[in-house]
Specification:
Number of strands: 11
Protein name: AarF domain-containing protein kinase 1
Radius of gyration: 24 Å
InterPro entries: ABC1_dom (IPR004147), ADCK1_dom (IPR045307), Kinase-like_dom_sf (IPR011009), Mito_struct-func_regulator (IPR051130)
Structural class: alpha+beta
GO biological process, one term: mitochondrion organization
Number of helices: 22
Family: Belongs to the protein kinase superfamily. ADCK protein kinase family.
Distance between the termini: 63 Å
Strand content: 5-15%
Largest sheet: 5 strands, antiparallel
Pfam families: ABC1 (PF03109)
Length: about 450
Amino acid sequence: MAGRLLKVSSVATAVVASSGFYLYNNKLDPNDISLVRFGRAAATTAVISYDYMTSLKHVEYGSEEYWALKSQLSDLFISFDVKPQGAASLAQVHKAVLHDGRTVAVKVQHPKVQTQSSKDIVVMEVLLNMVHWLFPDFAFMWLVEEAKKNMPVELDFLNEGRNAEKVAVMLAHFPWLKVPKIHWDLSTRRILTMDFAEGGQVNDRDYMRRHSINVNEISQNLGKMYSEMIFVHGFVHCDPHPGNVLVRRCPNTKKTEIVLLDHGLYQILLPDFRLSYCRLWQSLIKGDLNGIERYSRRLGAGDLYPLFACVLTARSWTSVNAGIGNTPVTHSEDVEIRSNAALYLPQISDLLNRVPRQMLLLLKTNDLLRGIETTLQTRAASSSFINMSRCCTRALARHKRSKAQSRARRLQITMSESLTLWQISLYELFLWVKGSTLGGWVGSLLSCLHYTH
């Protein structure tokens, strides 16, 4: 039955793909479940660049006003590349130069995409009802609910600009993170103009090798950035596919940078949800089974908490039992997960219907990040769990301080937080020494001493 369902609906395929490795290697984009990608292919036309002016004025294509505005592009730009730098189902991006010499990227929404989106929702709803009728065990109507909620947000480019500015301020303490500046005077709901950013995609190992970019540093910084978003702030960029995360060497400082693009879709995590999610990940890293069950149930998984833990981490239950921070990822484990995914499709469907809607975009984000780590061959690194542990510790301590009634209690919480963070740093130092040349020498010396005795 699962095999037949996979032929009927690409939605089922997205659900089965519980690991980023599976998604990446099968060329699947979790965004395929959104309505525009569900109903049509992106329309690319030679005149799309001139929609910039029509969007500003809300004029009809082909009218006299349209052609008059078309001739006024030179008032805004010295040059405007008609050929897009990149295109997707909602919009495409053109390179342009302002009169002051600054190079900008102009993101232009495809014509009629807003009117088409309502039709796409109807198509999606009909198809999902058909799937549910054919296979009652599989209920995916939450996809329609999420599409109805998220698509208007993604189509409002002014909202995307506000998200970009918010995350830039929120993560300003990361000097290696760059978010292109928004040009509000040249932006509307259908047009977004921002500084142009160059770089290679985050999964392009050849680009990183040519530019002497450390793959492990990129993976570690990506983990830091998302741990901060999820656990500390609860404001999460939910579309980190490789085209939206660029890497480069800064032309001035020569330091490695990450450029974060496409800020249309963010998930805001409610405080109770975020704190339970923090505690769940702490339990997963340590292998605390009681904690895993307790916080999985709080997040709506119920009796399916073992499956929830496996889906969330893309690890086997054996690894979850041992603590995912203590067990490296192996190829055989990945094969096991992909092989078993289809067998548990009804339970996965049930699980996705149980958990809060906030969890759905987090699962998608986890899969995309895991796919990047798999490509960079850094999934087995401990640094990601160390960063998560730090952020969870900080988030929970901040929450406890906000609830503390006395200065003494707040001081106690701060001291406990500092001690835990010190222990995490000490463990990180131990791992570094263990993996270094010095660690190899010490290990050899200890082996010799043990042999002589």
